[in-house]
Design a protein that fits this description.
Blueprint lengths: L4 E6 L10 H14 L3 E7 L2 H4 L11 E5 L2 H14 L2 E5 L5 H11 L3 E6 L2 H9 L16 E4 L4 H10 L4 E3 L18 E6 L7 H14 L5 E4 L13 E4 L7 H6 L1 E6 L3 H6 L5 H8 L4 E3 L5 H4 L7 E2 L3 H10 L2 H18 L2 H15 L9
Parallel strand pairs: 1-2, 1-4, 2-3, 4-5, 5-6, 6-7, 8-9, 8-11, 9-10, 11-12, 12-13
Helix pairs in contact: 1-14, 3-4, 7-12, 10-13
Amino acid sequence: MNALGIVIVGLSITSSWGNGHATTYRGLVRALEARGHRVMFLERDVPWYRDNRDLPAPPYGQTALYASIEELREGFADTIRDADLVIVGSYVPDGVAVSEWVLAQARGLVAFYDIDTPITLAALERNEAQYIAKPLIPRFDLYLSFTGGPTLARLERQFGARRARPLYCSVDTAHYFPEDQPTRWDLGYLGTYAADRQPVLERLLCDPAAAWPAGRFVVAGPAYPASIAWPTNVERIDHLPPSEHRGFYNRQRFTLNVTRADMTACGYAPSVRLFEAAACAAPIVSDWWPGLDELLRPGEEIVIARDGYDVQELLRTWDEGRRRRMGERARARILAQHTAEHRAAELEAYVAECGRPRRAAAG
């Protein structure tokens, strides 16, 4: 494919604090640039990311901050107009107004990249969506979704999306790989607090920790309420920047994947943490959701846990050889199908499928 000029208006690429968007965008932008495309990322400058920037100047593509939608319009109209592809991401502040403006300005293709599809659809059903509106969906050339499976057909049938295509999260293999480090924890979890995810986390990590006082456990991530009573053998890390994720995974015997309720209901919604942990050959324990077995084979590449007893059994009975073999098989599967390079190639294929855009830019 000829080199494209791509503009992404996304939640954040400079800060991973409290969000999973940044690591996804970083890998995708790096891979697109490596394939010869020119990428600019536009990010709203907000206090909570400004105070927690772990990559203030990404070394790939161009990154620009804007303070308001007025500044976006005044400073980047030509950039949007001249791009071959503009991608607006979910959770962008003033997302509806941003999308309206982009669709009016752009001469090239315009896509919406939904990194939160099940949450988006639930909000649309309640007429409470803040960053996308139902009338906008049919106007995008592409609706790129973190969620695959039946949700794609629903986006087209119920919401009028022209082309709903999966663009799962991925892993940047330059940053995630096995390392020989001393084991610090028997089981760990990395993720921002979510009320609907907490009961599963307590069942699959806290209950086994309470039942096995000699075990070592860890939960890393921000926004957990101070009222949570963690077992004494559960270590808490408030925020772990991406630069420390690889070491975190490599110091665990097993790592836990827990899915939000809306994601579980829709299925086919893998977390970026799933791919990152697998790339580090960290054996993964997960709750179940439809489509998981199409990504990793249960029993061979991932362990599905129904309750704390399942977790206790593997922590106490699996020998080192069995544990390592599962991690290595998962790593091989992810490297073959779910790297940032795979996502960049998929995006190219979707752009080629669209052909020429159907709009003329505003004067």
